[in-house]
Design goal:
globular, about 30% helix, about 20% strand, alpha+beta, about 550 residues, single chain
Length: about 550
């Protein structure tokens, strides 16, 4: 079930109070009446006038200290198992940073150590930071969660005109706009910028508006850019003015270039040989086009300051940085992200930049993980009823490093011991994620009786896709090469598979291993081709441009 703001019902739709309100009110009234009845019968027990919505604290300082005493061991074990080059961790409890430490090196093969000021790319942990930035504007009355983003970002257009005109900040920040999962991300891999990507979102098929959860980096980014435009500034400047500078986050930025040029920054690493845990700093992620969703960089010292503010209802060192009501809105469930898979199982939700879950004792836990396949792993977990939070940053591709350490810490703080073998559990989940989107066909092994290709001249030429732009197939010394992306800046050697089907190795943040390119060739020419991994939404066909 998805929350639908009453002010934004479709024309002719009746407004009604949220179901949760009537249910809670009903329970409260029942219990109050029951309490009156018990008193009249002379009961000696004092009953509460109404049930509480907040779990009573169950973790004390001793439990937190015991858990922080384990962190060095958790990190050491993780680095031993995985060879992770660098990790940093900070823990906040009752408005105090009770642990902060760096481990390992910023770059494999170089001696500079990771410390608590080292800047890591946050990837999608940028989203909860962004929610705080936007909440400052809401709290100041400058924008409203329920305002259509189109008011401030005229470039936002999707396939349904109603959604274009009515999608609000909440809709886009909670991934309920109907845009498909990660729609537009592949355009970023092909070198396109924010404006070019957003201008093509109207070609993506939409799911049900406000009745479907699908993780959309560019939907989220549009909301952030709209907030910045409402103040006639850029997203990086708005973030600095509203959150980073007031919290003293001097090692935090929403500019990729500023992170890259910072003297104390962690390099991204990919695992090049899993058998020997060999990592290399081969790539640099550039999420500038989706800065609100994935473009922030920070240190654990700075993130600890932000966690203090988040857990203190927007207060920091005696100053109200974010209005408490606006901040709490970011921690509320606004979309239904994962249904229960069995009776009695807990369900998951999404706020405006946070995943919203309940633990096995009914406590609300707000969190977000982040990952760049090109070399970043991040996680932040907040247990608000306990005034407890942790952030873990690592310069590794996503294999579960940060998420496992956070889970181990929270498990130990809650239970005084580990109750789950978190490392294999989390790494197993990441292995499934890595396999998602990969082709079921093994292109490295052509089928028995594979047909030969036609002459190379049949396949060469210039092609175009309305969504992915121009492409070209060229003959380089007898070998076919596909050129893709903005200005055809990416080159992929094509390897023959069967008949008019070739394959190539994908690259970039959203690479999925080998993928096919299927030519539609007849009468001595290829009229079009379809790229398998670009065709998830049926947009991967390129048509030949007449000579």
């Amino acid at each position: 079930m998805t929350t639908r703001p009453a002010l934004l019902t479709r024309p002719g739709q009746r407004r009604r109070p949220p179901l949760t309100y009537s249910l809670v009110l009903g329970v409260s009234i029942t219990l109050v009446l029951s309490g009156c009845s018990s008193s009249s019968e002379g009961s000696s027990r004092s009953l509460a006038e109404s049930p509480t919505n907040v779990s009573a604290p169950q973790i004390d300082r001793a439990a937190v200290d015991a858990a922080t005493d384990q962190i060095d061991g958790f990190v050491g074990d993780m680095m031993s198992r995985t060879g992770a080059p660098g990790i940093a961790v900070a823990v906040v409890y009752k408005n105090e940073v009770v642990y902060a430490k760096g481990f390992g090196v910023r770059k494999v093969g170089e001696p500079e150590p990771v410390d608590t000021s080292t800047m890591f790319q946050l990837a999608s942990v940028s989203k909860p930071l962004a929610s705080s930035v936007i909440a400052t504007l809401v709290g100041d009355g400058k924008i409203s969660w329920d305002e259509p983003v189109k008011m401030y970002e005229p470039g936002f257009v999707v396939a349904d005109p109603y959604v274009t005109e009515n999608a609000t900040f909440t809709d886009l920040l909670s991934h309920r706009s109907g845009l498909p999962d990660h729609g537009g991300d592949l355009l970023e891999d092909l070198g396109y910028g924010y404006e070019e990507i957003v201008s093509r979102l109207d070609q993506l098929p939409l799911d049900r508006f406000r009745d479907n959860y699908a993780y959309s980096n560019y939907g989220f980014t549009v909301a952030g850019v709209a907030a910045a435009k409402s103040e006639n500034t850029t997203w990086a400047e708005l973030s600095e003015q509203t959150i980073y500078e007031p919290l003293g986050m001097s090692n935090t930025t929403s500019s990729t270039d500023e992170w890259r040029n910072a003297p104390n920054h962690a390099y991204n690493h990919v695992l090049t040989d899993p058998t020997t845990n060999t990592w290399e700093a081969k790539y640099v992620s550039n999420p500038e086009a989706q800065s609100p969703a994935g473009g922030a960089s920070s240190s654990v010292d700075d993130m600890a300051a932000w966690i203090r503010m988040e857990l203190a209802d927007g207060m920091f060192d005696g100053r109200q940085i974010v209005d408490p009501e606006a901040l709490q809105y970011t921690h509320q469930a606004h979309s239904f992200s994962r249904p229960a898979t069995e009776p009695g199982a807990r369900e998951s939700f999404y706020g405006t930049g946070f995943s919203i879950n309940t633990d096995d004792r009914g406590r609300v836990q707000v969190a977000h993980a982040g990952a760049f396949a090109l070399g970043a792993s991040t996680d932040v977990e907040l247990l608000s009823s306990e005034d407890l939070g942790i952030v873990v940053l690592a310069n590794t591709a996503p294999i579960g490093v940060s998420e496992a350490i956070s889970a181990q810490f929270m498990d130990y703080a809650k239970n005084g011991e580990l109750t789950v073998d978190w490392v294999p559990h989390v790494s197993g989940q990441f292995k499934q994620l890595v396999e998602h989107g990969r082709s079921e066909t093994d292109y490295t092994s052509p089928p028995a009786g594979a047909m030969p290709p036609q002459d190379a001249s049949v396949y060469v030429g210039k092609f175009v896709s309305p969504f992915y732009g121009a492409a070209e197939v060229v003959n380089e010394g007898g070998d076919l090469v596909l050129r893709l992306g903005r200005d055809q800046q990416l080159s992929y050697p094509l390897i023959h598979y069967d008949g008019d089907t070739y394959w190539f190795q994908t690259s970039g943040e959203n690479a999925v291993g080998p993928t096919s390119i299927q030519f539609a060739a007849a009468d001595g020419t290829a009229a079009s081709f379809t790229v398998e991994y670009l065709d998830a939404q049926g947009l991967g066909t390129f048509t030949k441009v007449p000579a």
